[in-house]
Specification:
Layout lengths: L9 H5 L8 H17 L5 H14 L6 E2 L30 H4 L3 E2 L6 H11 L13 H14 L1 H9 L3 H9 L5 H11 L17 H13 L4 E2 L5 E3 L7 E2 L1 H14 L3 E5 L4 H13 L20 E4 L2 H9 L3 E3 L7 E4 L7 H15 L13 H9 L10
Parallel strand pairs: 4-6
Antiparallel strand pairs: 1-2, 3-5, 6-7, 7-9, 8-9
Length: 386
Amino acid sequence: MAQAHQPLTAAEVSELFPAATPHSNIARYWPYISSALQEEGIGDRAMALLALATIRAESEGFEPIDEHPSTWNTAPGGHPYGLYDERRDLGNLGSGDGEAFRGRGFVQLTGRDNYARYGEQIGVDLLKRPELANDPEVAAHLLARFLKEREGPLRHALASNNLAAARRLVNGGQHGLNRFSDTIRRGQPVTVAGTSSACDTGAIAGLSQQVLDRLETQGALVAIAHPLIQLEGAHNNPWLQPQAAEALIAAVEERGEPLVINSALRTPMQQHLIHQQAQRGECGIQAAAPPPFSNHNSGLAIDIEDSSGWRPYLERHGWQWLGAWDPMHFDYTGGGVDLGGAQVLAFQELWNEHNPEAPLVEDGLWGPATAAAVERSPAAGFPFKA
């Protein structure tokens, strides 16, 4: 049974979407969606955020739309959506069905079977009038019904902070996962201080990403991208300094086996949480440097699985094992710069943009004032600014 709640306003919804999203669309369509969620008994904040995250993952324009022709649904030189025509898993029966029952609405309802089933559930004959899936009221009810059917697993995924699983439950894959996850996190009004005992620095991934976005645009970091490299968990920022990333890939290609990274780049905010947990003896953390003095804060360190197996390969490419007291940890010793101060400065600039009435000194130094500002910052990141 959903708990009593205060529905989100259009103004609150606008804060979860980029400034480029037409606010007139939010004002027009959100009342339909909110009403449909209420009718399905899933109008609480958590399920409303899931609905909004789904919309943003599909289209940041906040309107019911047609699926666009793409290589996924249309063969080169073929008629639009022709690759859907024979999709028996969608219930399509042949030529014309792909186009007729293409993705539509807020949730991108697709396929003859889905049009028939969900149309019957909401009392609209979508087989005869498939274009009605883009009608604002119909699209809102389709979204609400779709989420209602998956309510239990979706709530479980949210409670365990498994946003990738939540996205799969709605979309069947990972399309739009970054936008989906960002919307959920922005809508969760939790400060960094409120996550300090969570044993998961992924809880502040939204705030961390805002700082990392600034460093990425400066060319200081590159993404860890290789089919044999796996990064585990929402806490894991997939970035290293360029030369460290090149050396890591060289080691992986030499061994030719999957490498599982448990921790790569950390922001000072994440390091702050880990350092606090180590001081309190929580989360199994035996030792952690204060921010921003860990090599993790500079994109020059990794924690991995199978460290003994990887050690000779990594050491041949400029990585050094820290020792038995921290057996998963390797530092890159082949060059690089200290980015800890740059990350602190990026946070200070971010804070000042959103808190001009209580500015920090922009000096790149971690001190009591910066630590206190981090504690008060929204874990999901600051709202979009127009």
